[in-house]
């Protein structure tokens, strides 16, 4: 099968190659998914799990990508809950080969049914971004109606999900980013926008929840804005940053089928919009995943038209 792989950690994303790799076999409780669309996170080449398995053994050449949408092609021994021919989407295990390939073996517990009226490219754009936003806001941030959310990177793949889900939950959303992101952040539902290059975060006053996708000095400034009892939610690490009188949480997203079902239903209802920047065929994946300009949304690779 064809797959997008990396072989040299020092090369990073520049070392991506489209190669032939063996078709995987589904293990116990796995399904083999015939991939129709897939996506990846640009920082994957820096993750230890891209290069080693759970036992710490080198697994390169490593197939990239963890967002997947496709059709169940085969079941592993003991697999229940899914059937051959069923449309599915979800996140694959971080330490296993990824989804930028024609086939991928996935634990069945990481997949949810993909409704027939949702395109595979849309399905592949949702899992990591949508679940990161959902879990950060509701599981870790304990968001309630009437609260104020500061959403960093509000025009990005995760940020647009955070903005929409928080607003639907009754929160007042302040989006941040560069000046060029203002229109997009407001279009996706932010009530107001802060230009991190020219505006001062300290002028905002207090907020109940900060959703941080940036880290560093921005995270330190943001922590000082959190009201008593509020929460700093981060996906970039905390680096010792703590709100004065609140909680700080750094988390790694998990594939939860019930949450995927909630997210895709909102897409079907028109309550949630995807943020897809580009869709490219597998043969053009290397160029699409290494754009010359700045990414403003998800790049989805269409494996099967």
Outline the fold blueprint.
Elements: E1 2-6, E2 17-20, E3 30-39, H1 48-51, E4 62-63, E5 67-75, E6 87-91, E7 103-107, E8 111-113, H2 120-125, H3 127-140, E9 148-151, H4 157-168, E10 172-177, H5 182-187, E11 192-195, E12 207-212, H6 216-223, E13 226-234, E14 247-250, H7 257-269, E15 276-281, H8 285-289, E16 298-302
Parallel strand pairs: 9-10, 9-12, 10-11, 12-13, 13-14, 15-16
Antiparallel strand pairs: 1-2, 1-4, 3-5, 3-7, 3-16, 5-6, 6-8
Helix pairs in contact: 3-4
Structural features, described:
The protein is of the alpha/beta class and 305 residues long. It is 22% helix and 29% strand. It has eight helices and 16 strands. The chain has helices at 48-51, 120-125, 127-140, 157-168, 182-187, 216-223, 257-269, 285-289; strands at 2-6, 17-20, 30-39, 62-63, 67-75, 87-91, 103-107, 111-113, 148-151, 172-177, 192-195, 207-212, 226-234, 247-250, 276-281, 298-302. Strands 3, 5, 6, 7, 8, 15 and 16 form a seven-stranded mixed β-sheet that branches. A six-stranded parallel β-sheet has the order 11-10-9-12-13-14, sandwiched between helices. α4 (157-168) links the parallel β9 (148-151) and β10 (172-177). α3 packs across α4 (157-168). It is globular, with a radius of gyration of 19 Å. The two termini are 16 Å apart. The relative contact order is 0.16. The mean pLDDT is 95.
